[in-house]
Amino acid sequence: MKITQHSSAGTLTLNLDGELDASSSVSLDTELGKPDTLKFQKVLINCKQLNYISSAGLGVFISHLQQFQDAGVKLVFFNMQDKVYNVFEILGLDTLMTIVPSEAEATAI
């Protein structure tokens, strides 16, 4: 999986491209765990090119969720493919995490 990022006006956007599985989740965990990440008001996760997510990938987001909430950082997912959204929905994570259809909506939150 490839992770690219850009930041502007208090927002960090991570673009996920490929499959988020046990091996690639380590890279994502490293990105989300950087101290600078908590300096942003929002962290947007672009899932447009995310084709698959494993339990290890979900675990990375879950493990950082409380830390983000405590720091007042909004974690927002957008452009999620149906098959990836279904995994979040089946596990009830769609009620714990903010998932919106588009980047415009993610930015507006």
From TrEMBL:
Protein name: Anti-sigma factor antagonist
Record-annotated STAS domain positions: 1-109
Family: Belongs to the anti-sigma-factor antagonist family.
Organism: Hymenobacter tibetensis
Signal peptide region: none
Pfam families: STAS
Organism phylogeny: Bacteria, Pseudomonadati, Bacteroidota, Cytophagia, Cytophagales
Domain of life: Bacteria
